[in-house]
Amino acid sequence: MNSTHQASLGSICFYGAGSMAEAIVRGLIHKSVAAPKQISMLNRSNQERLTYLSQQYGVFTGNSEQDKNKYLTEASIIVLAMKPKDAKEALTELGPKLQEGQLIVSLIAGISISTLQQLLGTNAPIARSMPNTSSSIGLGATGLSFSEETTDDHVQQVLSMFQSVGIVSVIPEEQMDILTGVSGSGPAYIYYMIEAMIEAGIEGGLTPDQARNLTVQTVLGAASMMLETGEDPAKLRKDITSPNGSTQAALEVLADKDFTNTVKAAVHRCKERSFEMGQAVKEAL
Ligand SMILES: NC(=O)C1=CN([C@@H]2O[C@H](COP(=O)(O)OP(=O)(O)OC[C@H]3O[C@@H](n4cnc5c(N)ncnc54)[C@H](O)[C@@H]3O)[C@@H](O)[C@H]2O)C=CC1
Ligand SMILES: O=C(O)[C@@H]1CCC=N1
């Protein structure tokens, strides 16, 4: 989905003030899609973290009962940004505070719309999302599914929010776990690969700075080549691989270690784990 929507967002309360909430807040503010004073962020206890967030972004923050009551009831959009294991407590508390017309946007991995509604005790309109941390620099990739209670206006607001921080795919909810395996957790696999390449470069005698800069530019260049040429990755790989050359030798090592199946197994295990986390919450209802 490429078109840019400009729906007005109203006030947004992030219920959970961790790394994913910060990534989206940073993106929203940097892209001027929301002003700092439209945003509030709540966490359980870490005052130091809240002080950092209010100083860094100029948003409202809080962790007291009074703050919670104020920001959760005043917001037009409430973003669920706590870990799956904390969802039951947080949503049971949130349910009775919900106001008519408020929209819930969940970032929580694994937990279905119907489980969220059961925890809230009401069929509130819900957008289930799976973003990633690259949202903080406007290069996020987000999956979205909407509950049947959401209106066209809700859909536009949520598209607006996530399109401001990257690309968006609207998908059937049952595909959310595999999307988590590909793009929600995906940046971590790429960082893992980058870490290994940097280590190897240093082992081979490059300075840490050289190894880092060369690796980062290589990953950026490879991703940009795919975007700009629209080519198949296998074709781009073949363009680098001279017969019996150095690239072929490297790829043979990866193939010997079952690289493709290992990466696929990681993505599928992530999908399965996402489902398991949701099931654990559902079974404890
Ligand atoms: N980190 C990532 O790359 C991604 C995370 N997600 C999802 O986003 C959610 C948050 O993940 P992170 O930001 O990584 O976690 P985090 O551990 O960094 O942050 C969680 C926040 O929730 C707060 N919290 C927990 N219970 C609370 C309660 N009862 N009241 C108020 N605040 C409460 C904590 O104080 C903390 O600020 C998770 O559900 C995760 O599945 C989704 C996509 C990517
Ligand atoms: O690791 C997790 O559970 C979350 C979901 C996607 C990225 N981080």
From TrEMBL:
Q: Note whether Oxidoreductase occurs among the keywords.
A: yes
- What metabolic or biological pathway is this protein involved in? Amino-acid biosynthesis; L-proline biosynthesis; L-proline from L-glutamate 5-semialdehyde: step 1/1
List the catalysed reactions.
L-proline + NAD(+) = (S)-1-pyrroline-5-carboxylate + NADH + 2 H(+); L-proline + NADP(+) = (S)-1-pyrroline-5-carboxylate + NADPH + 2 H(+)
Q: Which Gene3D superfamilies match?
A: NAD(P)-binding Rossmann-like Domain, ProC C-terminal domain-like
Q: Which GO terms describe its cellular component?
A: cytoplasm
Q: Which keywords fit this entry according to its UniProt record?
A: Amino-acid biosynthesis, Cytoplasm, NADP, Oxidoreductase, Proline biosynthesis
Database matches in InterPro entries: 6-PGluconate_DH-like_C_sf, NAD(P)-bd_dom_sf, P5C_Rdtase_cat_N, P5CR_dimer, Pyrroline-COOH_reductase
Q: Does the keyword Methyltransferase apply?
A: no
- Biological process (GO) annotations? L-proline biosynthetic process
* GO molecular function per UniProt: pyrroline-5-carboxylate reductase activity
Task: Note the superkingdom of the native organism.
Answer: Bacteria
Q: Where in the cell is it found?
A: Cytoplasm
Q: Where is the Pyrroline-5-carboxylate reductase catalytic N-terminal domain?
A: 12-110
One Pfam family assigned to this protein is P5CR_dimer
**EC number assigned by the record:** 1.5.1.2
Q: Which residues form the Pyrroline-5-carboxylate reductase dimerisation domain?
A: 173-277
Locate the residues binding NADP(+): 81-84
Enzyme type, top EC level: oxidoreductase
Family, similarity comment = Belongs to the pyrroline-5-carboxylate reductase family.
Protein function: Catalyzes the reduction of 1-pyrroline-5-carboxylate (PCA) to L-proline.
Among NCBIfam families, the record links this protein to: proC
Q: What is this protein called?
A: Pyrroline-5-carboxylate reductase
Q: Which organism is it from?
A: Fontibacillus panacisegetis
